[in-house]
Amino acid sequence: MAGRAPRMSLQMRAVSAYLRLTSKPRMATAERTRRLMAEPKRPAEPPRRLRDRHVVSSREVGGFACHTVSPRGGAARAAVYVHGGAYISDMAPQHWALVSRLADAGVRVEVPSYGLAPQHTHREAHPLLAAVYRELLADVDPSTVVLAGDSAGAGLVLGFAQTLGQAGLPAPRRLVLISPWLDLTLSNPDVRAVQARDPWLSPDGLIEAGRAWAGGDDPRDPRLSPVNGPLAGLPPTDVLIGTRDLFHPDVLRLQQRAIAEAAPVRVTVCPGAVHVYPLTPTPEGRAAAAAIVDTVARGQG
């Protein structure tokens, strides 16, 4: 007799309701997304409590800010963390909280502040990640490094990782992708079926943001939509996704490709969970965040 699927927690239900009321309307249409993109961008400076807890330094790399967050006792591992926000929004407190947890576990974290659309595009982001990664590898061995990100940032990480060989850069130890945005076009027919269940994301608004991020280039290009890119040569890759996430169908598409091509991609699906659920204040989110920290800091999993 098959067991019952695990129920989503009351906290996840509350987060879902809150997002549906407050966040989903902001990018529900292309017009609203254009208005959002036109708003002034706020700086993504590390919060004071992060600076009080860890060693934080900031510098410019190729004209963009990059922050290094290091544990006070020294770091045995390293990570590059690329934040989400539909390529139009900067670091949120939840991102900094995960960075802080990684530093607590002994990880040096590089946090590049890539330029946001519509003022900037992917054409500047990829060179920035390459420069930050090269600088990091001048100090540490790639076998100690994890490339990680969430949502748009996770898509950017995967697209970048697929180009490492062409750039003559070694692969990191692992990739960790939280709810990755894998296809800017959202053309997978299963996406629309998930739309009503997702309390946060809307295809029309995201497609408009993706168009701005593409900057006139074909949004199907693997650098922009890495679900279309090569999987051969990737390091072990962890993908975390919820079933109430608009990106779930494309993660399943990536998983199917990985199985067919024997690529080392492991997908964890959390029933009932919302977009970027490891960043949410829920039992599911806390468990996933702890697993991510173990993977990055101690090589677990």
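Above is the first protein from milestone M3; the second protein from the same milestone is given next.
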Amino acid sequence: LGSLKEPENTMVIWDHYESAKNMTDELACFKILSEIDPDIKQKTVEKFYAKWKLDKLVLDKWFAVQAASPLPDTLEIVKSLTGHHDFSIKNPNKVRSLIYMFAMQNPINFHQKNGAGYTFVADQIILLDQINHMVAARLSSCFNLWKKYDDHRKALMQKELERILSTQTLSKNVYEIISRALA
């Protein structure tokens, strides 16, 4: 029903969200609603957070659903969520839920034609490398297939890979992933 993106179906999904008896059903509806319409998505984001804000593991899902949304404003939302009081760049689970999810599970927004998704993720890799080089290295793998894209995106990704590689304090772990990708 959600893939049809018809207003009457959206209301059926919303009704299912509202009447869900468990978090699994609620989360499934939340994921679908986050892909349909920015207004209904925001309404669901707020309701889900209000209900589950005290459960840190469920909040990881809250971050992940927002990061995976194919809606056009997702990159800006992900950027703003890095400043959310329940997000910490020092917490690997939060980083995986938000930044890794965006880079690895949201091809529409990560591969924006203007390269903004690449720049954002490269910035996060550089920042993370100072905090947790293992998480930064894992996130770096999102650029591994850069040579398989169109020339425009290849050039944008290559620029970001070279920028990461030029970081003076780059860890061996991130250096290995990035230099191997560029080879």
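Note on the second protein: The mean pLDDT is 96.
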